[in-house]
Amino acid sequence: MSLILILALPFVGSLCAALLPSNARNAESWLAGLTALACTVLVASLYPQVADGGIIRADLAWAPALGLQFTLRMDGFAWLFAFIVSAMGTLVVLYARYYMSPEDPVPRFFSFFQAFMAAMLGVVLSGNLIQLVLFWEMTSLASFMLIAYWHHRLDARRGARMALTVTGAGGLCLLAGVLILGHIVGSYDLDQVLAAADKVQADPWYPAVLILVALGALTKSAQFPFQFWLPNAMAAPTPVSAYLHSATMVKAGVFLLARFWPVLSGTEEWFWIIGGAGLCSLVLGAYAAIFQQDMKGVLAYSTISHLGLITLLLGMNSSLGLVAAIFHMVNHATFKASLFMAAGIVDHETGTRDLGRLSGLRRAMPITATLAMVAAAAMAGVPLLNGFISKEMFFAETTFISGDPFIQYGLPAMAVLASAFSVTYSLRFILQVFFGPPAHDLPRAPHEPPRWMLLPSGLLVLTCLVVGIIPGITLGPFLETAAHSVLNRDMPAYSLSVWHGLNLPLAMSFIAMVAGVVLYLALRAHQRALPGKVPFIYRFDGRRTFEFLMDYSSVAASWLLRRVASPRLQVQMVLIVVGTLLVAWLPLHRGVWNDAPAPITPLDPAFVVLWIVGGICALGTAFQAKYHRLAALILAGGAGLAVCLTFVWFSAPDLALTQLAVEVVTVVLLLLGLRWLPRRIEGGTEGIEAGRQGLRAR
Hints:
about 700 residues, two-stranded antiparallel ribbon, 30 helices
């Protein structure tokens, strides 16, 4: 019952928020905040039931004839994600209460926000693969509404369309992969699928399943080569960005990879597809973040990079890599949400997010500057912060990987390079905004926001500090519970200690820190010479490719429409019927459905006579429509009656009654309409001309 309540509360809250008046900003924020807080409390109360490897289920009849049930399932991993989604939602709602303007349609915002939360909780708690895909697509729709919230802006509409197109297409790929996976296992129940790893990987359709599931996950988490949609989603309000980047939308992809890790990982295909996409996203996202001029742009590309780190860890086929990936999911949620909140505060209080215009804000906004500095240090992997520990675990995994020299030495080198880039863009984000001489050309005079607006960011920064100093006591039990629910008997031994001695991962961290500082100083010295676009890779902008494909798909559709379309209904019907017959004939031609031919049932003479009469009525309708409308209508009714009797013949009385009701209503309406039609003019073109002259004379 608790699982159903956790899922139902945000949906009910979304509906209630939509019905509130537009000037009730306090009521809407209180409603959304209490809903998210109630979900957080309910999720937290279920931890004792999953702490020892337990699984909570709630089953409702959905489509019993198809073997489908609406199943909610919570294990340790689902519990951790559900807690992040609901707790982060509570903090973001509090932040949004002070960020959103009274002139904005706030009921719509909180309604979409709670629907977004509910959809993400549905993904996390789904115990059925088909149900998971439904909630998966629901997150795409809800994010579309939130990204396009300021729909009067062109960039918001374009960003929302791009996000929906990419993630929606990935969702269709995921649906295909899930259907094949369920067919291989013989069930769509998540427990049975996760227990069938050997059967799935031995099946010849395993590569197809892996590619389709990977497409769904990589598009949702904005991983290479689908990373281009995420920076364009920055047109959304900052509370949406903070929630989308930290706990929901983009985390759904890596959640799915970790959820299917027991059944799909452990193969070369998994390593190259998942690990390769993660490595490209890790390096390219960090590199592009260095050159962004928008504060949210820096954070967007850094999100791509950190999600690439998580994806790479999942792709290494290592149980320790999975533990490190789950750990970094939590750490990334805390410092990234705090940084987005800081960027929103700067934008809210100064009127701009342009790094070229911002400078010296720490004097006017000391609390905001302090919180942003700590969160950025966690993002860069500074010791005694949570990001440092998960980064050390990542470095350790890259050093223990075996294979050819390119992988054995290249992977640690790429990890250090990406970490150095992370230090560089973190330094640029902080030093360029909060240090230096005060800016004098800002749209608004900078000052601290209300204290309640700072509270969510402060709590997240405090979490970064506490987890970074005493990780084993604070996050350790929850991490072990989540990892154990995925790995079961393959749970490895690991340590969350801050100090592991002088070792290679520590040396890699030191090299990355020094290299990142040196790179920042070099770029700062040549700041005026920096190009306006990201060097070397700006020509490979995914947005340009996406727009090119969208434009040329429209051109191709227009060309096809001109070649195929006709203003005549008869031609269109012929094309539809011929196309349908062709598609139905293909499997019969290949012999797929004819392997075991069934005996042909002899035709009943009465049934043959019925269809002959119906066919004659149909042909007579087409013939009489030109000469006698009433006769054509009577014959059409006769053809419809033949169809009704056919349904009765094949024991389908419900269809027969429906068809009969439609026929009666249609004939009566057409009969009433006949009297309003103009009289038919006989005599060809001469008769038409005579009729026109008669009308003119009148």
